[in-house]
Design a protein that fits this description.
The structure holds 2 protein chains of 2 kinds.
Chain A: H1 2-18, H2 22-33, H3 38-44, H4 53-91, H5 109-123, E1 127-128, E2 134-136, H6 137-140, E3 165-167, H7 172-182, E4 187-196, E5 208-218, H8 223-238, E6 244-251, E7 254-263, E8 280-289, H9 291-296, E9 305-312, H10 313-321, H11 328-331, H12 334-337
Parallel strand pairs in A: 1-4
Antiparallel strand pairs in A: 2-3, 4-5, 5-9, 6-7, 7-8, 8-9
Helix pairs in contact in A: 1-2, 1-4, 2-4, 5-10
Chain B: E1 2-4, H1 5-8, H2 19-29, E2 32-38, E3 46-56, E4 64-69, E5 76-80, E6 90-94, E7 99-100, E8 104-105, E9 109-111, E10 114-116, E11 119-120, E12 143-144, H3 154-157, E13 163-168, H4 179-190, E14 203-207, H5 208-211, E15 213-216, E16 224-231, H6 240-248, H7 256-268, E17 272-276, H8 277-280, E18 284-289, E19 295-297, E20 303-305, E21 311-314, E22 319-322, E23 326-327, E24 340-346, H9 349-358, H10 364-369, H11 378-393, E25 396-399, E26 402-405, E27 412-416, H12 418-425, H13 431-440, E28 444-448, E29 451-456, H14 466-477, H15 497-511, E30 515-516, E31 522-523, E32 551-552, H16 557-569, E33 575-585, E34 594-604, E35 606-610, E36 615-618, H17 621-634, E37 641-645, E38 651-661, E39 664-672, H18 674-679, E40 685-691, H19 692-697, E41 714-723, H20 728-736, E42 743-752, E43 761-770, H21 779-795, E44 799-800
Parallel strand pairs in B: 14-25, 15-18, 30-33
Antiparallel strand pairs in B: 1-13, 2-13, 3-4, 3-6, 4-5, 6-11, 6-12, 7-8, 9-10, 16-24, 16-25, 16-26, 17-24, 18-21, 19-20, 21-22, 22-23, 27-29, 28-29, 31-32, 33-34, 34-40, 35-36, 37-38, 38-39, 39-40, 41-43, 41-44, 42-43
Helix pairs in contact in B: 6-7, 7-11, 12-14, 13-14, 15-17, 20-21
Classes of the chains: A alpha+beta, B alpha+beta.
């Protein structure tokens, strides 16, 4: 019987050794260790043995069984690992192939500039005021100290709808409307929007463009407040190292009026082709609100004062992004538009 | 305004200041210097030559061979092609080695076999604009005065060793439209004094008033009219210095009389006019409103038709000049003129402005009158002209000025406190500095009781209110001295809900992969109402620059389609754009069009394109609809939105849907009509436009969380056989209306039309989800609920497959 057992063990080990698939292994297990297998049969036949031989034989059978089970387990693990290896090898990919396209759209560069400026001013306590693109002559000119026949009206050639109605030439009428609504109360607004002038479209002119104007009215608002505010704007848009300078100028709605230059962001002020060797770039017009404008809107110019400024979004975007032709903003070529998706800084 | 520094130095000492430094100082003080122009253009080796002899070129009819004395021992042989070159002339000679404007380099050369050692030049060849060259020399070489010395620097004699500052004047600084005005400005900047011209001349015993009568009919339009009479004039060329100053100022020299009026115009900023006394013929001047339809031929030989609100200068009978704008041809000074009437007047600025605009004629005169000339310079300018006519044209000035004068010449008084100035600027400028600045400007200032009482000179008509004094002080004190502060703030800023939601719209569109476009509000009349959700009365420009930009748009789609077309034409085949902008509808009570903000999209080409994986999906209706759906989801309006098939001009009749919010049409989603696609050279193109104003105005409830379901959901699928024309949306509505609260979600998961279906039929499969937030549903409950749905469908005649 012992002899028989040894033989069975040898047979089973040989078959386990030969098995190359998990199925073959399983077949061997069922054949030798299963309930109907020869080892079980041997155990069943133990009743015929003597009382001394029985435990000895039982221990022997168990040893053989354990041995076979262990070999089986080892072999199974090895085959499983091999199968996984094979699957992984099969699943290997070229990771340098392009990823699936996830759509990335983005804002128009002008909106990008405008929102950046909006966010700066909102953080300084401003609200955003908007108004109609088609305006009354009154709000566009008269309320801004530009009565009919005023020579300065020539500075802004306009598209008229009728004698009294036109496409606004700046977003200042929003200021005039806001002042009228606020009835003498302090104001702190910026006014972004589309404006229109009678210009032939070319590389530097556009009959439609975007402006952002600002207006602050309150007690003791001074020119130094204007200068500080515009300094913050210049630093936000063109970098913390920028400086501004004011030059006297003329706008009918402000007195004093200034043009504002920012130190060149390309050369840092040393002089280059962007700043035409001057180190400075003109970026906006501003001034202290003209007392006539305050009085017309019902403000007491003896008690309250204010400042206003106006920025061209195209000009800022052209300088900031180095765009050389204003028409790019309106032809909407996706090769142009898609360049403005990434964040800066 | 072109300012010759040579001329300017007659009135103010600018010795030793580099032109660029002076330009910078002037700019920083308030008048922008647009350009600093070196009139010599760095030309050297151009000298005076004396044409000693002239012979015909043996080989060329039009060429002459000249022997020219250039101040050296040997004569130089120069071949010259100018028709007016002649023996005995003093001419401009460019010597070999000279470089002329336009990159011309003068070399010894042979012209048709004859040696030529240089070039005899025209003024144009020295860079003088053709329109400024006196007519006599316009088509040939320029001839220098006979007393010029051969070999001398010709540019110096021509006054071209000079620098001109080009001033970009703002409308308030018309005082700087004169050399004296600029002199006052420069003197204030440099703390210098202004040297005014000394006017002295001898007068005839005869009185002007005896030979000239004057009547002014409208003293409001013409409050001051002064006339001087000068006789025995010899009309001739002006002296060179005068011609050179005029050319430097951009004025073409004509003859001494005209040149003198122009010289005084530039010097004083006071336009003058010279009439030929004999051609006036009546010995009378009457200024009056023109008659309706009255005509005059002006100096530029144009006939002008006038109206009663135009002022004319007449000889008592016919118009001789359009007041303040231009003289008439009839009484123009000619070579034969001997007696002139010099007019110096003040015309109402608004009146001149209107006249000049209406008759379409702007002149150096009208440009000054319409901004208001200095009332106190009208009479001195007349005297200055008389003096120069006596000195330079041999004229005999009759005694006295023929005059009507009702003009107020008192200076404007402005009272301002130093405190006001400093508060306004946010500075602490000492009183003595303020006084110094105002004195430098030659403002008459008195400090009393803590106030500054300022009499601004009448040449500075722009100084009227305290803020004007603030600016004068600040600009000369220096804007760099102003500190930087921020306004004290006790308010919170922010976006309105509308503005915040508009940014959400941008984010949704861009998240879906669309780029934001910006297009023009103006379009053609033809496109204005195309694709409009509601076409209303359009808004048109009175005077459009082109038909293409004549009318305000009522839909954003046409320009977006144009943009798509532009891109596709440049091989950008896949285009996905959105735009947010206003459309202009009808008219409000205010008389303005109603401006409604819309958002629109255009899609063409491929939507997904993962080429190497073979995955390419063109855009279709449902891509457009999906974007719209995402937008409504983000705005919390999904449940309130529905879609209904419709038709609109220009859109595919089978692929157009209205978008409804709370049952109201707020938008459209569609494929462009194939004809439109073809016209725009586009393949299948989808568009959508939504009334953003309406959508963003829709109020939504506060966001409160609902419990995440803790119990399992049960799904049941139904496939229905339907007529092809039955919209899935209707079936969804029937299912929703079946009356079971347990049904929480309905999805369409398959639509099939094809061989396996009867003709005209389709199969639509729905997946229904049942659950209860409070407990696990039993089979019986699900069956009961589902049966309700099946029953409702059966009642509606929908056949379950």
């Amino acid at each position: 019987m012992e002899q028989q057992l040894k033989q069975l063990e040898q047979e089973a080990l040989a078959k386990l050794e030969a098995a190359s698939t998990l199925k073959e292994l399983n077949d061997v297990r069922v054949a030798y260790l299963g309930k109907k297998g020869p080892i079980t049969d041997l155990l069943k036949g133990m009743g015929k043995l003597s009382a001394e031989e029985r435990p000895k034989m039982g221990a022997l059978v168990n040893t053989v069984r354990e041995n076979l089970t262990e070999v089986l387990a080892t072999k199974t693990t090895a085959l499983e690992e091999a199968a996984i290896e094979e699957q992984l090898a099969k699943e290997s990919i070229d990771v340098t192939l392009p990823g699936a396209r996830v759509a990335i759209g983005n804002r128009h560069p002008l909106t990008r500039v405008i929102e950046e400026i909006e966010d700066l001013f909102v953080s300084m306590g401003y609200e955003i005021a908007e108004g109609p693109e088609v305006e009354k002559d009154y709000y566009n000119f008269e309320a801004l100290n530009l009565p009919k026949g005023h020579p300065a009206r020539d500075m802004q050639d306009s598209f008229y709808i009728s004698e009294e109605i036109l496409l606004r030439t700046h977003t200042s009428p929003v200021q005039a409307r806001t002042m009228e609504q606020k009835k003498g109360e302090p104001i702190r607004i910026i006014c972004p929007g589309k404006v229109f002038r009678r210009d032939t479209d070319d590389a530097t002119h556009s009959h439609q463009f975007m402006q952002i104007e600002g207006l602050v009215i309150g007690e003791g608002i001074s020119m130094s407040d204007l200068k500080g505010t515009l300094d913050a704007l210049a630093k936000k848009m063109f970098g913390a190292e920028r400086e501004i300078r004011l030059r006297p100028s003329f706008f009918p709605f402000t007195e004093p009026s200034v043009e504002v230059d920012v130190s060149c962001h390309k050369c840092g002020g040393a002089g280059c082709n962007v700043c035409k060797q001057t180190g400075w770039i003109e970026i906006l017009g501003a001034g202290m609100v003209h007392p006539n404008v305050l009085e017309m809107a019902g403000y007491d110019s003896k008690k309250l004062s204010g400042f206003a400024f106006g920025i061209g979004a195209e000009r800022i975007a052209m300088l900031k992004y180095g765009v050389d032709d204003i028409r790019h903003f309106y032809t909407n070529d996706v090769r142009f538009l898609s360049q403005f998706h990434r964040s800066e800084g | 305004m072109l300012v010759s520094l040579k001329w300017l130095s007659q009135y103010v000492d600018i010795e030793g200041i580099a032109p660029t430094d002076l330009a910078e100082k002037i700019t920083r003080a308030g008048i922008e210097v647009d350009a600093v122009i070196d009139r010599s253009q760095a030309i050297e080796k151009v000298v005076v030559g004396h044409v000693v002899s002239k012979e015909k070129h043996p080989e060329a009819d039009k060429l002459n061979v000249c022997q020219v004395d250039v101040g050296e021992e040997e004569l130089q042989q120069i071949v010259c092609g100018a028709p007016n070159v002649d023996e005995g002339q003093k001419v401009i000679v460019a010597r070999p080695g000279a470089r002329l404007p336009g990159g011309i380099k003068i070399k010894k050369a042979k012209l048709r076999g004859v040696e030529s050692n240089g070039m005899i030049c025209s003024l144009q060849e020295l860079g003088v604009e053709g329109r400024l060259v006196p007519k006599a020399y316009a088509d040939g070489i320029y001839v220098l005065p006979a007393d010029s010395t051969p070999g001398e620097d010709a540019l110096a004699i021509l006054g071209l060793r000079d620098t001109v500052l080009e001033l970009g004047l703002t409308p308030n600084r018309s005082d700087a439209m004169s050399m004296l005005g600029v002199a006052y400005e420069v003197a204030a900047i440099l703390s210098q004094e202004v040297k005014l011209p000394q006017i002295t001349y001898t007068v005839s015993a005869d009185k002007a008033a005896d030979v000239l009568k004057l009547r002014v009919e409208d003293t409001e339009a013409n409050p001051l009219y002064a006339a001087k009479v000068v006789r025995n004039i010899k009309v001739a060329e002006s002296p060179l210095w005068l011609q050179h100053y005029l050319m430097a100022a951009g004025v073409r020299p004509h003859n001494n009389v005209v040149d003198i009026t122009n010289y005084v115009l530039m010097e004083y900023g006071q336009p003058l006019h010279a009439f030929d006394y004999d051609k006036l013929a009546t010995g009378e001047i009457v200024t009056r409103p023109a008659k309706e339809g009255e005509t005059i031929t002006t100096l530029d030989d144009q006939e002008r038709t006038l109206a009663p609100h135009h002022l004319v200068i007449t000889n008592g009978e016919v118009a001789e000049a359009v007041a303040g704008v231009m003289g008439g041809a009839k009484s123009e000074v000619s070579d034969a003129t001997t007696t002139v009437v010099i007019e110096s007047a003040y015309f109402n600025p608004a009146s001149v402005r209107r006249t000049s605009k209406e008759i379409g004629l702007r002149s150096d005169s009208s440009a000054r009158f319409e901004k208001g000339v200095d009332p106190n310079r009208v009479l001195p300018a007349a005297e200055r002209a008389a003096q120069l006519l006596a000195e330079l044209a041999g004229g005999e000035v009759l005694t006295g000025t023929v005059l009507v004068d009702e003009l107020d010449k008192t200076p404007a008084q402005v009272v301002v406190s130093p405190d006001f100035i400093n508060t306004h600027l946010g500075m602490k400028i000492p009183l003595e500095d303020m006084l110094d600045i105002l004195n430098r400007l030659k403002f008459d200032v008195e400090a009393a009781n803590g106030l500054l009482i300022v009499d601004a000179p009448t040449r500075r008509g722009d100084i009227k209110i305290p803020e004007d004094i603030v600016e004068e002080v600040a600009r000369l004190y220096g804007y760099d001295e102003i500190p930087t502060t921020l306004p004290a703030s006790d308010v919170v800023g922010g976006l309105t809900p509308y503005q915040a939601k508009r940014r959400v719209v941008r984010n949704v569109m861009e998240g879906a992969g669309l780029f934001q476009a910006v297009t023009y509000s103006l379009t053609s009349a033809e496109n204005a109402q195309k694709y409009a959700l509601k076409a209303e009365e359009t808004t048109k420009l009175l005077m459009p620059m082109s038909e293409e930009r004549s009318t305000l748009r009522q839909s954003l789609i046409p320009h977006l389609v144009e943009a798509a077309s532009y891109n596709v034409a440049r091989s950008n085949d896949s285009v996905a754009l959105y735009e947010i902008g206003s459309v202009f509808l009808g008219q409000t009570a205010e008389g303005l069009p109603f401006e409604e903000e819309h958002v629109a999209i255009v899609l063409t080409g491929k939507w997904t394109d993962n080429a190497w994986q073979g995955e390419k999906k063109p855009v279709d209706f449902f891509v457009a609809k999906g974007i719209v759906k995402a937008l409504f989801a983000k705005l919390g309006l999904t449940e309130r939105v529905s879609y209904a098939k419709t038709t609109m001009d220009g859109l595919h009749p089978g692929r157009t849907a209205h978008v409804l919010l709370d049952g109201e049409v707020v938008g459209v989603i569609a494929q462009l009509h194939p004809t439109e696609q073809k016209q725009a050279d586009l393949k299948e193109t989808y568009v959508a436009e939504l009334n953003l104003l309406a959508i963003l105005a829709a109020q939504t409830e506060e966001l409160v969380y609902t419990a995440v379901p803790r119990f399992p959901a049960v799904a049941r699928d139904i496939a229905l056989e339907l007529d092809r024309t039955v919209p899935a949306g209707e079936i969804v509505a029937i299912i929703k209306g079946a009356g079971t609260k347990l049904l929480k979600d309905i999805k369409v998961f398959d639509v099939y039309e094809g061989e396996k279906m009867a003709p005209g039929k389709k199969s639509v499969a729905f997946s229904l989800t049942y659950f209860d937030a409070e407990r696990t549903l039993t089979d019986e409950e699900v069956v009961a609920a589902h049966n309700k749905v099946l029953k409702a469908l059966a009642e509606a005649g929908a056949e379950v497959r």
